[in-house]
Amino acid sequence: MNNIRSTLATVWRIAIPYFRSEDKWMARGLLAAVIVIELAVVGLNVLFNRWNNVFYNALQERNLDVFTYQLGYFSVLAAIFIALRVYQLYLNQWLQIRWRRWMTERYLGGWLSHANHYRMQLQGDAADNPDQRIAEDTQLFVDRTLTLGVGLLSSVVTLASFVIILWGLSDAAPLHLFGRDIPIPGYLVWAALIYAVLGTVLTHLIGSPLMGLNFQQQQFEADFRFNLVRARENAEQIALLQGEPAERLRLSTRFQRVVGNWLAIMSRTKKLTAFTASYSQAAVIFPYIMVAPAYFAKKMELGGMMQTASAFGSVQDALSFFITAYRTLAEWQAGVARLDGFEAAIASAETLTTKADVIHVAPATSAAIDLQHLAVSLPNGTPLVTADGFSFRGGERTLFTGPSGAGKSTLFRAIAGIWPFGTGRIAIPAGATLMMLPQRPYFPVGSLQDAIAYPAETSAFGAPRIAEAVTAVGLPALAGRLDEDAHWNRMLSLGEQQRLGVARALLHRPDYLFLDEATASLDEPSEATLYKLIETRMPATTIVSIGHRSTLRAFHQRNVTLVKSGSGYELQESEARPV
């Protein structure tokens, strides 16, 4: 019961925001329409049940007029039933896609808000494979929530409607055993209840492991798919290292987890299906067994027997809702748990930046970026870099050097506001724009001009200006391919990608440009040409570089070295010189 209450509370917390959102009136209207139609269908089923009595009595009595009339009456009911089911499905699907669209936009917003996606990775939260959570789990949640919710409502209303009918039929045809009537009020209702309760308990005992197995199956499937994508994206490196056998073994190992868990699901499903199929088949004959003594004792007509069997079946189906929907419930609960974990991971990443013992980025009172009492650390608390009273002054060019692993790139991430681990304060001038150029720049799949203009729209610069920037960084051949769609991170060499990264900076003209070995794949003359281009095109931009080549010193006024100090590193500045 605690597990059920916890799951329902989670479902309510995930579902209710949509019905309070800006789309609430359409959402509530569609949901109400689906529910009203379901209630109308239950009402039609009651009419069908009554029709059984009259129709089969007409057959028993060989009454052609009543038989013909009842066929016409059935046709009208059937036409209404079909129309209701068609529109219920249509409105249900309409509600599903609107609900899923809203949830997808909400999760995308939370995941991609202020580097949350990056901090979630750093925290190592149980939010693996966010692509699956956003794409598959939201679809499963919406579909299963509506299916199970409407199904449960239908079962409750059906139970309430047919229990009254079945109770009356129990009085009309009392239990007849051994040649005499045994007065048990509503015995058919109690028989259906006992039958369903026993079936539900046994179903849960047999099928409860499916919930955990379905959760693991989704996790293993997503992990296997993610590693397939990784292999595709790193095809060149794998080929150069002749790593295909190792990659195949690694992927096969992950797929074996999929297979092993699937076999466990198969075994458990086989047992569950064997029981539920037996239960369902027995349920067909069970009501006839219950009323057959009264029928053969001439206590009821054929129509009454058929009506009783139909009403008993409806009551038994309603009481057996959890039996018939058990596999769906198991899949649904696994999806709910994954969305719950995803929401918790997003919330944790969001609150990480507001804690007292993290690095805080705030507006500066001066015209420079100031590092105050800054201590950058790893997520586990291991110290990396300390800095206090250090400033990046407007228009200056600073070069950072130091041993690999000293924390230079992590310091840049802290300044960018995406690395909260540590303490201290980073003050950035209000309204100042920062751009980070990493060693391997990111280009979204699409046209080349969109990839270069990213994250801005192409219209912010225009194709001629983008072509000029591409030519300026030494790639005139690409200037004529701006409309070509491709996966540019795979199409271009790392050196070409770094040139396009500089072209992106020339277009955006940030106030502060941080280059994290952003030209390391170029030869020294090409690197020098790009630095001179940056100086010429962006004279007012503050340039901060990470590099290991001594030739970079000629393009910077300040040289800062990270030197070992205790368990971490501190900044040690050489004497500034004009350039």
CATH fold title of the largest domain: ABC transporter transmembrane region fold
- Helicity, in percent? 55-70%
Terminal residue distance = 74 Å
- List the total number of helices: 18
Can you name the CATH architecture of the largest domain? Answer: Up-down Bundle
Total individual domains: 2
Mean pLDDT: 85
Total number of strands: 15
Topology:
Elements (H helix, E strand, L loop, with lengths): L1 H14 L8 H38 L2 H48 L4 H8 L6 H43 L2 E3 L2 E3 L4 H21 L1 H25 L1 H6 L3 H53 L5 H18 L1 H4 L1 H27 L7 E5 L4 E9 L5 E5 L2 E3 L4 E5 L6 H9 L5 E8 L4 E4 L8 E2 H6 L9 H10 L12 E2 L1 H4 L2 H15 L3 E5 L7 H14 L4 E5 L11 E8 L2 E6 L6
Parallel strand pairs: 3-8, 5-15, 7-13, 7-14, 9-12, 12-13
Antiparallel strand pairs: 1-2, 4-5, 4-6, 4-8, 10-11, 14-15
Helix pairs in contact: 1-12, 2-3, 2-5, 2-10, 3-5, 4-12, 5-10, 5-12, 6-9, 6-10, 7-9, 7-12, 9-10, 15-17
Question: Any overview of this molecule?
Answer:
It is a single chain. By secondary structure, the chain is of the alpha/beta class. It folds into 2 domains: 351 residues, ABC transporter type 1, transmembrane domain (ABC transporter transmembrane region fold, Up-down Bundle), CATH 1.20.1560.10; 214 residues, Rossmann fold (3-Layer(aba) Sandwich). The protein is 63% helix and 13% strand. The chain is built from 18 helices and 15 strands. A hairpin with a 2-residue loop joins strand 14 and strand 15. Helix 2 packs parallel to helix 5, helix 3 packs antiparallel against helix 5 and helix 5 runs antiparallel to helix 12. The chain is elongated, with a radius of gyration of 35 Å. The termini are far apart. The mean pLDDT is 85.
